[in-house]
Amino acid sequence: MAKVDFSPIADTTRRAEIVALLRRAILTGQLAPGQKLNELRISEQMRVSRAPLREAMRELVQEGILTSIPYAGTFVIEVTAKDIDDAYSFNKVMDELAIERAWPLRDQRFFDELDRRHEAVKQATRALDTTRQIETALQLHGLIYEWADNSVLLETWQRLTSRLQMYFALHQHARNEPVPAEDVHETYVRLLKGKDMRAAQRHAREHIDLDFEELLAYARGLEQRPSRGA
Amino acid sequence: MAKVDFSPIADTTRRAEIVALLRRAILTGQLAPGQKLNELRISEQMRVSRAPLREAMRELVQEGILTSIPYAGTFVIEVTAKDIDDAYSFNKVMDELAIERAWPLRDQRFFDELDRRHEAVKQATRALDTTRQIETALQLHGLIYEWADNSVLLETWQRLTSRLQMYFALHQHARNEPVPAEDVHETYVRLLKGKDMRAAQRHAREHIDLDFEELLAYARGLEQRPSRGA
DNA sequence: GACAAGCAGATTGTCGACAATCTAACAAGA
DNA sequence: TCTTGTTAGATTGTCGACAATCTGCTTGTC
């Protein structure tokens, strides 16, 4: 009998597809923070009834990227500097933990996967696809969580990822700059392959710092002159 | 003009009430792990249509205490020893972090609230209300998270709490023992009021150990002879 | 007796319509 | 002019019915 690893079949419910579509729209910034999601309009655009759409929205509310006010509407979450700061500071600690847990479990498969994801980032960078660049960078970063062998830790990371992706997308969207050409993940990957765990943790912390500082500055700027309007 | 702090008005949707009902049923063990939730039956019992019930279920799926398989059903999550171990080990690190962050922010209101929640645990203990005892103990424990001034940390704790409460309720339910008479939180509260942060962190870690070890042993026992049945 | 095909029955997923609620514009009165 | 009451429109919340899918049993064939 042939030994084939069949991956789970794709979700066939409309709900799942709607969730994916909405999430993508939010995380890429097509739906701006604070924006209201009109159920009727969206359901008509998607050619779907409101039932699966509403269920999908409930999921995204729990996922933390939508917020719902009864009888008023469902909105994309607002992004404050404090939110970003909280996520950033929390992420630093989590990273240290993940590296610590994943460290003794690194094996050939880990290194291969690390290279694979690193390659994906570089490819997105070369293609000047900023959205995909953010996505792949987070996936690269998420490997230590997948390897840490702790379901709660992984799940927490995945929840956080949604918001991080949204924040970075916002940032990119705002300054509308070309992506950095140099490879900022080179050192990170090298250290994860090395023998000095502390060094890897330290780098992860500092590396994150760099990205976030800019992001924070941007968010603080936003709060000075609050956007929003009719 | 009178200065009154009006609290937000209660959620008035059926969905919100259903979520509360279902969550309570799961966390108290009235709905056993692995059990299937029949939508038609539940909606009839609650005198509600399936729409708000399904939306409520979606929320609880995202909350991590239900799991859904398309066209098959929605089930209460199974509890494995590894799940408990993961939650426990994750919780230890989070606790240290929360204490560290909350420590410099402790004030009179913190101490008052600490006493208030401690009192609630003692009262539930005296009343031999095990469910309420678990609930209040977790609320006591959660204060450091509320005070840590980090929304992501707090949110993560709240998600974790659901599952912790479920685990402990299962345990209690299984051994069906009277609640411990002595006050196991005395030291914890005292240390949180003191000046030695490290000591508080150490105690939190060790205190949690105690509770969890028993729980883990119980869960491992479960996995030997897998329950399950018609 | 073993096995595949096909057929109920039950359950989940989706739909369209109705009810409840909110918002904003407008009118009436102090 | 400001406040309050009213009303129309739009939007969300909920309902009951239908469609799609799964499960287990029965039936027929070898």
Question: What do these coordinates show?
Answer:
Chain A is mostly helical and 230 residues long. The first copy, chain A, folds into two domains: 14-76, Arc Repressor Mutant, subunit A, CATH 1.10.10.10; 81-224, GntR ligand-binding domain-like (Four Helix Bundle (Hemerythrin (Met), subunit A), Up-down Bundle), CATH 1.20.120. Helix content of chain A is 68%, strand content 4%. Chain A is built from nine helices and three strands. Chain A has a three-stranded antiparallel beta sheet. In chain A, β2 and β3 form a beta hairpin. In chain A, α4 crosses α6 (130-147), α4 packs across α7 (151-175) and α8 (186-193) runs antiparallel to α9. Chain A starts with 13 loop residues before the first helix and ends in a 6-residue tail after the last helix. Residues 225-230 of chain A have low confidence and may be disordered. At the A-B interface, α3, α4 and α7 of A face α3, α4 and α7 of B. The structure holds a DNA duplex (30 and 30 nucleotides).
Describe this protein with a few key phrases:
230 residues; Four Helix Bundle (Hemerythrin (Met), subunit A); 68% helix; mainly alpha; DNA-binding; 2 domains; Arc Repressor Mutant, subunit A; homodimer; three-stranded antiparallel sheet
Topology:
2 copies of one chain form a homodimer.
Chain A: H1 14-27, E1 36-37, H2 39-46, H3 50-63, E2 66-69, E3 73-76, H4 81-102, H5 108-126, H6 130-147, H7 151-175, H8 186-193, H9 197-224
Antiparallel strand pairs in A: 1-3, 2-3
Helix pairs in contact in A: 1-3, 4-6, 4-7, 4-9, 5-6, 6-7, 8-9
Chain A binds a DNA duplex (30 and 30 nucleotides) through helix 3.
